[in-house]
Amino acid sequence: MADVDGDKLHELVMKMLGDLGGAFSVPTVRIGHRLGLFDSLHADGPSTAAELAGRKGLAERNVREWALAQAANGYVNYDPDSDRFSLSPEQAMVFAVPDSPVYMPGAFDCAAEMIAGEPKVEQAFRTGKGVAWGDSSGCLFCAVGAFFRPGYVNGIVQSWLPALDGMVDRLQSGANVADVGCGVGFSTLLMAQAYPNSRFTGYDFHVPSIEQANAHAAAHGLADRVKFETAPAKEIAGGDYDLITMFDCLHDMGDPKGCAQHMKTLLKPDGAWMLVEPIAGNAPAENIGSPVSRLFYNASTMICVPTSQAQEVGAALGAQAGEKKLAELITAAGFGHVRRATEGPFNMVLEARL
């Protein structure tokens, strides 16, 4: 055995303790979210455990241990003099303001669903046959939708669509839009709310997602001008679209090149294809050490790669494919121009034209 550097070992152990503390927080954060404890602290201000428990009709002893755990996590504040717990404005943005760009309960749900799907993904390691989307755990697709929603709420209309050449004017006048891989429909409905003169169709191959998307459309009063259909990307019929959007899904597809080729047939000659993909460098060495890439590589191991492997071709691009590989794939499918229109801390937005 090689000599062990004590300082490096200590550094690694302390890092692991931090990581495990975060992992152990997943169930407690989820309980606090579901029981409305974060929301109550945000709405009602500093509270003792007894006050918090009384408002929510919960057992005080359990609530106190939960609140102390969140204080140890750094997710709530604790004042020992008053024995009260509170949320700072910054903590509220993460745990209690659903339209905040950093609202994170969905990420904790994703972590729990990945753990639930671990046995199936492990088997996929042995066979290489993947795990079909929706099959790994109870409601992974719900958790993923919740995880991505804050970014969509704060990015699609504000910066992503305006970064496409001339597209906002077309959407305001009335465009025909396909949202491919729409999931539970958050992205489609956000666009429809912003551009009431345009027509939107969301497509996804996952039946339960489309069922939820239609329910969301009805709940928001948009079912009369937004429709959702179950269809794999390569089997979408029709066409003549001014804009095709794909949010965080091309890398999950089994045959992304075949999908790109089909998107080419669906666009108007002067139309645009907007792809939102996880931010990444073009080589693994560019991503190692980034906390965002760490999150995406782990999620890709448990979700993205197995999902692709379970489909036709099984290209398994992964969530850290990078712009260069994606652009090469898109141009090989027949698109003449691909550019990075804009980017954020978690995503890059590519614009492809014929």
TrEMBL record:
<keyword id="KW-0808">Transferase</keyword>
<dbReference type="InterPro" id="IPR053173">
    <property type="entry name" value="SAM-binding_MTase"/>
</dbReference>
<dbReference type="Pfam" id="PF13847">
    <property type="entry name" value="Methyltransf_31"/>
</dbReference>
<dbReference type="InterPro" id="IPR048711">
    <property type="entry name" value="WHD_Rv2258c"/>
</dbReference>
<dbReference type="InterPro" id="IPR029063">
    <property type="entry name" value="SAM-dependent_MTases_sf"/>
</dbReference>
<feature type="domain" description="Methyltransferase">
    <location>
        <begin position="172"/>
        <end position="279"/>
    </location>
</feature>
<dbReference type="InterPro" id="IPR036390">
    <property type="entry name" value="WH_DNA-bd_sf"/>
</dbReference>
<dbReference type="GO" id="GO:0032259">
    <property type="term" value="P:methylation"/>
</dbReference>
<keyword id="KW-0489">Methyltransferase</keyword>
<dbReference type="Pfam" id="PF21320">
    <property type="entry name" value="WHD_Rv2258c"/>
</dbReference>
<feature type="domain" description="S-adenosylmethionine-dependent methyltransferase Rv2258c-like winged HTH">
    <location>
        <begin position="29"/>
        <end position="94"/>
    </location>
</feature>
<dbReference type="GO" id="GO:0008168">
    <property type="term" value="F:methyltransferase activity"/>
</dbReference>
<dbReference type="InterPro" id="IPR036388">
    <property type="entry name" value="WH-like_DNA-bd_sf"/>
</dbReference>
<protein>
    <submittedName>
        <fullName>Class I SAM-dependent methyltransferase</fullName>
    </submittedName>
</protein>
<dbReference type="InterPro" id="IPR025714">
    <property type="entry name" value="Methyltranfer_dom"/>
</dbReference>
